[in-house]
């Protein structure tokens, strides 16, 4: 290589791998170092709770890239490196083993870490968190001798696990502390719909309650709730959300709720960038954090462009995620902490609908799509254009979304 500049990427997950690859495909001629604390080749995490658990994917098919690709693209992949500190003056990073690395540009793609619970008896065997391949392997091995499973948390990870385990013929109970899980994201009606979906597929859902104790000799045998329910189980899965992994720290690196970045992926320290789950990034003027595959890919690619050509590509992504549960495909576009009204297109009973979240001016801020993939593109366009929509026409399935007429722009 003719250019001696070095870009170091910390984190070889979805964001890190796509950033490294994008640097090369966009023409970067310097050294690219991609490092991760995990010792396994970079792999895709979303299938862990679905295809991997049900046996539809093996370890080889989980890899993000064929190992030969890293050599072909001249990406220096260094695994088992646990980075902790950064020195922005000397432009070095330090790892737990005492090693140090120089950089000209640094990209933090450290992802997120699972929230954990402290419950009496949580040291028993058979209690799992699912984040890494090692977790998935341990779970799969344990499940060969298990029939009764308790899942703590009815978020998307817990819901996907429940669906996968039911496919494997297990007796599944979800314990959820709220009355309506994910209500702040999808609203009460959709939350109730998702709970009913589990019920229809034989999943026992206990809501407005929480597990306070695990019982058993060496392996978990029972989960006890605050409401006094005693649930027999031989395995427990805990999925209660995630927090940004901001372990790489410095006093001048703003990282309250995630590494704070601008629209170009720049942090509070020059030449240090961040991308993916670990970031707090500006969406229409409001800092948000998104923990989804699609965001990690697109954010990483955009930040890579800005590493190459400073402040050349603002990130204007419309947040998107999907979830597969009990044979249904759910998609969510946009971001709406608050909404004025919702409009349902289709019916909940049919399990094929699109629920729109509108602001006070009848502009679509977000949409939840159930088994209607054809609506994805027009929905994304509506959110991007932010034009005023007639709610009655939006609910009328005889009016094609792609032909939806907009009212006068505000």
Automatic annotation (TrEMBL):
Query: Which GO molecular function entries does the Swiss-Prot or TrEMBL record give?
Result: dioxygenase activity; oxidoreductase activity, acting on NAD(P)H
Please tell me one Gene Ontology term that the record gives under cellular component.
cytoplasm
Keyword Oxidoreductase applies: yes
Q: Which UniProt keywords apply?
A: Dioxygenase, FAD, Flavoprotein, Oxidoreductase
- Note the InterPro entries from the entry: FAD-oxidoreductase/Apoptosis, FAD/NAD-bd_sf, FAD/NAD-binding_dom, FAD/NAD-linked_Rdtase_dimer_sf, Reductase_C
Which Pfam family is one of those matched by this entry? Pyr_redox_2
Q: Where is the FAD/NAD(P)-binding domain?
A: 7-300
Ranges for domain Reductase C-terminal: 320-404
Q: Which cofactor does it need?
A: FAD
Q: Which PANTHER family match?
A: APOPTOSIS-INDUCING FACTOR 1 (PTHR43557), RIESKE DOMAIN-CONTAINING PROTEIN-RELATED (PTHR43557:SF2)
Q: What is this protein called?
A: 3-phenylpropionate/trans-cinnamate dioxygenase ferredoxin reductase subunit
- The species is Lentibacillus persicus
Give the organism's phylogenetic lineage: Bacteria, Bacillati, Bacillota, Bacilli, Bacillales
